[in-house]
Amino acid sequence: MQSFLKQLLSGSSRHTGWLAAVVTVLIWSAFIVIARASSMHALLPLDITWARIMGASIILLPWCWWSVHRQRSTGVVTGSFGGFSPLPWRLTVLTGFFGGFGYAVLAYSGFFFAPAAHGSVLLPGSLPLWTSLLAVYILGERLHGYRLLSLAMILGGDLLVGGSSLLHAFEGGTVWIGDLMFIVASISWSAYSVLSRRYQLQPLQATMAITCFAFFSFVPLYMVLCASGVLSTHLLSAPWTEILWHALFQGGGSVVLSGASYMLMIHAYGPVRSTMITSLVPGLSALGAVLLLREPLSWQVMLGLSLVTLGIVFGVQAVRPSSSRVTA
Questions:
Q1: Using CA atoms, how far apart are residues 31 and 251, in angstroms rounded to an integer?
Q2: What is the overall mean pLDDT for the chain?
Q3: Based on the number of CB atoms within 10 Å of its own CB, is 164 exposed (0-12), middle (13-18) or buried (19 or more)?
Q4: Which of 59, 108, 307, 316 has its CA 20 to 30 A from that of 84?
């Protein structure tokens, strides 16, 4: 069992790419649906962020510390942050800021200002655009005609799935703040994806590093701000079962499991193709909201799903093997 897990995490399994894609899409879709439902419960967005980071840290940080110190005992100089990150300081801060701290804080805070339907479109739906642009700049990839067409189809489908509410996002109030947070969170995750590909980071190591940075940056800062009265928190008054649920799903599922599966998918398909696969998330999360939250299924959703599917087909076919290589 241990050898199979090691083989799977190293990306050597024949079917790792497909398995990683399925796990990532399912967990990300569930994340959107649960985020919509969580607005009716006790915890605040940053409380959920805290539960997410703590849940992941309890699982990953002891494991990483043991692994790093075992390597150091053999004379290998590795790790940082006292052995709680397997990567050097610079890479831990760089990937941790974009993939851990920045994404979680912006994404959950966005749900406080804007409807969850906006997050369903602007978080995963914008990934192909931002990842493609960053891949051009950082990895030296090129966008061809079919790739551009696929991105246009995916983004058009994502906008249709979002419905007419996005058209009124900037008409006043605070909705535009949440939408802006969702967009910046999407850019942050795209930057993490491309940087991980650029430095050829291993899936488990990258997930440990971003968890380490989030734990040592967000957790103490949040505790200080809450204790000083700058921020409000419901952690002391919310049911412990709700906190435990978010620690398990948001931390164990969204960070540990989907974090590793997403990195495996990047190693298998590259960052651009991976984000095209995850463009299924807005449509699937919308269908999940219909089935679980009783939200109506409109013609925009059906047409949007069709456009996203066609865009993914065009995008996968348009990617050439040489385009996924890392440039020096």
A1: 11
A2: 80
A3: exposed
A4: 108
